[in-house]
Design a protein that fits this description.
This protein has helices spanning 6-28, 35-41, 47-52, 56-80, 85-93, 98-114, 118-144, 154-174, 181-195, 209-218, 240-250, and strands at 197-198, 201-202. With 254 residues, the protein is mainly α.
């Protein structure tokens, strides 16, 4: 019987361990990340954790990097399968499904842990800069293809889009009802529509998605019912300004 490759036998337990750590962080928070709880999720012993990681910090860092790599792979696949790579990229960055929400919860926990830790902060900043650079290249491609005006500043707009996605995604983790996946997508679509507009109307977006893109982006969000309009009582006093105007109008010209 042929033995499995050494890389498979060595990485499979580690992958399960990191996924268990990610799920534990997402379910209970980073303070709940203990060797005992991870071992319980894996139905194993704590030596499984200490075999791979010497400290909680190492485990958190590896978990963060694994989630980032997983997200990047999903993003690149979405871009390959779409005729609108920029929209696909931005949508793939959002926490629109359970796997993406898991990643964002890990990132949120990691961000809190990185405060006061220069090394962790630098890793976070490097990942963020890489994402912004990718969006810059996609915006530049849109400009070259005539889908955006040449007056668009790719550096500024990529920063705006990335900051928007970061803020909305974190909000969706703490308030998922208000920041639903549909709401997140709609806001991103509106931003893309804004960027792809010119003085003469919307520029052509790739493929046959333009019509659906504009229709979805233009629909107003559902709002709570407006309060009933105030009804003036018959005996209501006319405002003083209106009374003076009426009196002036009624005075004959001398």
């Amino acid at each position: 019987m042929t033995s499995p490759p050494a890389s498979t036998t060595s990485t499979a337990p580690l992958s399960r361990l990191v996924l268990a750590a990610a799920e534990l962080i997402a379910d209970e928070g980073i303070n709940a990340l203990t060797n005992g709880k991870i071992a319980k999720r894996l139905s194993g012993s704590t030596t499984m954790v200490t075999h791979y990681f010497r400290s909680k910090r190492e485990l958190v860092l590896d978990t963060y990097q694994t989630m980032a790599s997983r997200s990047r792979a999903r993003l690149e696949q979405a871009m390959r399968e779409s005729d609108d790579p920029l929209a696909a990229c931005l949508h793939a960055l959002l926490p629109l499904d359970d796997p993406a929400r898991l990643e964002w919860k890990v990132w949120l926990a990691y961000q809190g842990m990185s405060v006061g830790d220069p090394e962790l902060t630098q890793i976070w900043a490097s990942r963020a800069a890489s994402a912004v650079d990718r969006v810059i290249r996609l915006i530049e491609a849109d400009i070259s293809a005539g889908r955006m005006s040449s007056s668009i500043d790719p550096d500024m707009e990529s920063g705006r889009l990335f900051s928007l996605i970061q803020g909305m995604s974190f909000q969706s983790i703490v308030d998922p009802k208000r920041w639903s996946p549909a709401h997140l997508r709609r806001i991103v679509d509106l931003e893309l529509l804004r960027l792809r507009r010119s003085d003469n109307g919307p520029r052509a977006a790739p493929g046959a998605e333009l019509a659906d893109f504009i229709v979805r982006a233009s629909k107003p969000p559902r709002r709570a019912a407006d309060p009933p309009a105030l009804v003036r009582r018959p005996d209501a006093v006319t405002p003083a300004r209106s009374t003076r105007s009426s009196r002036t109008a009624a005075t004959p010209t001398r």
